Every structure is written in structure tokens, then in C-alpha cells.
């Protein structure tokens, strides 16, 4: 997995002249990054401050050993530490890279979950998504990419292109403020509206909780400690007599994200009471599976590129010795006789029956550390109201429909 260099330091100040990001691949003064084109390869700075050989602290050593590729990506204004001859590529920021590098203020929703959730919520260019709570803004960034058909900061080609929107609610004032700032920094203004609000009490209208505008959402994602308390606001006809936050012309798709089964059960019970349908619960068990063909040695068993699996340790050791000797002979050069017998040996080898990539035994291995349970996802839909007028309009539009 590529390592993501944090685009923002602890104070979230972004890349700055005079700063340096130190990674295990070397030091990258920000002056060498600013103004470069996306995709550029930037070599690590060769600055040597004499820190080479300095023993890393225990924590740093653990970080460097971490198989996840976690870096010391701290951006400091200090002089660069001794650089290795690494490089980096400047990549266009994506929700995935932001999720891996954002400053954590809360638990966040990760890519395996949000990609599945957004797919089930039918979030697409033009959709309006309600999200609560905003937390660290991980889901916010993924959902805005799903509903906006373009690149942040880019002028929309058509007016329609900008119709998608994310209405994000967060009751922690500082968190709401930070998400708002990040949205601006990432050129997403106008596509995300962050409201500081307790949604259990005040629901999802934009502006004033009683008399505000309806976001007219067709997709809802609730990452809250008690999602069932917010459901009473997500109805077609609110008890308060106010507007519904749902799009009257679309089915509403909802997903709630809860770490405990008890929370999921409470949510499901409330969903049933409020007439949500097709209720289902899913747990995403994301697990990387490495698939490869094992090819021990080449030209074994009389088949070019075939695999022979030694059955015993002795067999394996003999095979290694033979391979070694063959490599040595090759390095030293071969006598005319050896050359001839090598050619004969080579020509006696059968070509593999299929293409080379299909040669060898197919093996697969799941990653050791299983990222098991994150949360229970509860999905449901709420159909739109269907009135006599809708029926009439439909008959006019499709007269053959009896
Ligand atoms: N989905 C977010 C992300 O991907 O970064 C993380 C959400 S975090 C786990 C839950 C958030 O819900 C917290 O920031 C919390 O302040 C907020 N929250 C809790 N109760 C709330 C309420 N009644 N109204 C609005 N937000 C609430």
C-alpha cells in the first residue's frame, strides 16, 4: 500500500515554505513540493545534518518497523534529518488519501465501509446526502465526491453538475468548525453545508430547525451513538407539521453505522415503527487476499517455467544447491561442452501448455492481521408518497400502462 504523506501538519497548516516533512524515505522540504505538477516525482533532499547514525527512540523504531508503512510524516520547521535516497509522487488528493491522513478527532468511517455504503445509498452525481455526525469529515469527503460530477475547485461544465450536495450535521461545535474549514481548504465550498446541531432534538432542516429549508435528501447516513433518536425527523410527514427533510420525489435510502448489535436492534425496531422497508443488516469484513502463482525454480520437471514443490527439506536443500551451482556456472562462463549440453537440456524442455502467467500453483493467503468488525450497517428504504395526482401524471406519460 502506498504511504500517504500527511498534507497537513498537527496545526493543519498545509504545505508551507520553510517546512520539511521527514519520512523513512528521506526528507522533503516543502519548497521542493509547492508549485509542482500532479504526478511529479520529487527526490528526497540530500541534506545531511549529521544526524546519521543517531539511534532512533523506541517509539520511532516501532513506527519505522510498522508493516503498515506508517511514517514519521511530521512537518516541522526544523532542519531535515539525514535523507535516504527515496522519492515521492505528488498525487491528486482523493477521499481515500484524505481518510488515511486526516487529523483524527473521532473514530472515522474507512474506505471499505464508505464505498459500500455510498453504493447502497445510490449516491450519485446530483444526489443530496444527509450525514450526521460529521466527526472528522472522512465520510463527508467520500460522499461529496460521489454526488459531485467533477473535481473540487473545477468550474462545473453545466449548471446541473453542481446539483449534488452533502448536508452534514455535527453537535460538537469545534468539530463542526474544523470540518467547515477543511471543506473550504479543499475547494468544496457550496457542495457541503455543515450545520452545528443536535439532530436528536432539532432534526435536519437547513437554517432554522422549525421553519428552515428542506435539504430534500434521497440518501441518509447516520454515524451517531443513538441513531434511533434521530429517525423521528426522517419521515414524510413530521409530527411537528413542518417540512420533511426528504426528497418528496424520490425513495429515501438510509444507512446507520453502529458498533454494537444492541444499537442496531434499537434502530431496526424504530425503523419498523416508522414504516421503513427492506431493512437489512450488513457487516463489512474487509480482508486483503494476496493471490499469486508459486514458481520455485525455473525449468523444473522438464517444463519451462513449471513449478516443482519439494516434498521434504532434503529435496528443497538439494534443489537449492543445484540452482546455486547452475548460477555459478553461468557466472563463470561455460566450456564448449557445457554450452552444448545446456543447449540440449534447454531444447529438451517442453513449452508450458498455457501462457507463462498460468504456470505454477495458484496460492492465496489472507493478510495476517484481520481487520474484522468495524460496525453493523443497517440499511432501509422509505418509498415516496404516491398520490392520485402522481397516478394521473403517470398514466398521461405512459398511456399504454394499464
Ligand atoms: N462519520 C464520521 C467520519 O467518518 O469522520 C465520524 C462520526 S463520529 C463517530 C460521531 C460524531 O457524531 C461525533 O463527532 C459526535 O460529536 C457526533 N454526534 C453525536 N451525537 C450527535 C447529535 N445528537 N447530533 C449531531 N451530532 C452528534
Automatic annotation (TrEMBL):
Principal subcellular localization: nucleus
Classification lineage: Eukaryota, Fungi, Dikarya, Ascomycota, Pezizomycotina
GO process annotations (BP): tRNA methylation
Region (Disordered): 44-79, 331-350
GO molecular-function terms, A-Z: tRNA (adenine(58)-N1)-methyltransferase activity
Database matches in Gene3D superfamilies: 3.10.330.20, Vaccinia Virus protein VP39 (3.40.50.150)
UniProt-listed Pfam families: GCD14 (PF08704)
Family matches, as PROSITE patterns: SAM_TRM61
Enzymatic class: transferase
Entry's transmembrane regions: none
Keyword field contains Methyltransferase: yes
Keyword tags: Methyltransferase, Nucleus, S-adenosyl-L-methionine, Transferase, tRNA processing
UniProt signal peptide: none
Highest taxon in the source lineage: Eukaryota
EC number: 2.1.1.220
Location within or outside the cell: Nucleus
InterPro entries per UniProt: SAM-dependent_MTases_sf, TRM61_C, tRNA_MeTrfase_Gcd14
Cellular compartments per GO CC: nucleus; tRNA (m1A) methyltransferase complex
Ranges of residues in domain tRNA (adenine(58)-N(1))-methyltransferase catalytic subunit TRM61 C-terminal: 86-381
This protein's name: tRNA (adenine(58)-N(1))-methyltransferase catalytic subunit TRM61
Biased composition (Basic and acidic residues): 334-348, 392-402
Amino acid at each position: 500500500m502506498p504511504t500517504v504523506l500527511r498534507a497537513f501538519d498537527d496545526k493543519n497548516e498545509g504545505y508551507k515554505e520553510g517546512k520539511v516533512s521527514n519520512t523513512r524515505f528521506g526528507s522533503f522540504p516543502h519548497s521542493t513540493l509547492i508549485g509542482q505538477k500532479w504526478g511529479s516525482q520529487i527526490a528526497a533532499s540530500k541534506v545531511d545534518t549529521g544526524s546519521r547514525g543517531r539511534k532512533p527512540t523506541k517509539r520511532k523504531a516501532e513506527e519505522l518497523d510498522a508493516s503498515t508503512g506508517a511514517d514519521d510524516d511530521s512537518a516541522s520547521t526544523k532542519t531535515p534529518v539525514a535523507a535516504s535516497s527515496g522519492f515521492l509522487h505528488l498525487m491528486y488528493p482523493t477521499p481515500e488519501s484524505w481518510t488515511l491522513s486526516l487529523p483524527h478527532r473521532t473514530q472515522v468511517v474507512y474506505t471499505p465501509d464508505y464505498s459500500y455504503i455510498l453504493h447502497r445509498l445510490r449516491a450519485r452525481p446530483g444526489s443530496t446526502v444527509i450525514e450526521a455526525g460529521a466527526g472528522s469529515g472522512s465520510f463527508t469527503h467520500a460522499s461529496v465526491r460521489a454526488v459531485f460530477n467533477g473535481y473540487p475547485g473545477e468550474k462545473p461544465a453545466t449548471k446541473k453538475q453542481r446539483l449534488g450536495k452533502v448536508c452534514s450535521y455535527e453537535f460538537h461545535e469545534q468539530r463542526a468548525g474544523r470540518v467547515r474549514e477543511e471543506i473550504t481548504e479543499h475547494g468544496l465550498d457550496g457542495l457541503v453545508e455543515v450545520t452545528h446541531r443536535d439532530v436528536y432534538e432539532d432534526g435536519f432542516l437547513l437554517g432554522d430547525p422549525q421553519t428552515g429549508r428542506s435539504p430534500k435528501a434521497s440518501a441518509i447516513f447516520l454515524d451517531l451513538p443513538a441513531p434511533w433518536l434521530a429517525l423521528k425527523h426522517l419521515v414524510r410527514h413530521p409530527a411537528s407539521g413542518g417540512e420533511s427533510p426528504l426528497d418528496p420525489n424520490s425513495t429515501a435510502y438510509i444507512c446507520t453505522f453502529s458498533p454494537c448489535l444492541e444499537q442496531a436492534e434499537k434502530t431496526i425496531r424504530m425503523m419498523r415503527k416508522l414504516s421503513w422497508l427492506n431493512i437489512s443488516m450488513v457487516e463489512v469484513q474487509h480482508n486483503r487476499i494476496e493471490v499469486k502463482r508459486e514458481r520455485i525454480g525455473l525449468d523444473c520437471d522438464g517444463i519451462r517455467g513449471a513449478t516443482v514443490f519439494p516434498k521434504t527439506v532434503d529435496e528443497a536443500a538439494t534443489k537449492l544447491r543445484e540452482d546455486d551451482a547452475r548460477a555459478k556456472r553461468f557466472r563463470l562462463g561455460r566450456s564448449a561442452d557445457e554450452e552444448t549440453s545446456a543447449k540440449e537440456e534447454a531444447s529438451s524442455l517442453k513449452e508450458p501448455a498455457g501462457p507463462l502467467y498460468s504456470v505454477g500453483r495458484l496460492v492465496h493467503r489472507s493478510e495476517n492481521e484481520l481487520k474484522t468488525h468495524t460496525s453493523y450497517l443497517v440499511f432501509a428504504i422509505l418509498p415516496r408518497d404516491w398520490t392520485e395526482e402522481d397516478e394521473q401524471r403517470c398514466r398521461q406519460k405512459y398511456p399504454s400502462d394499464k
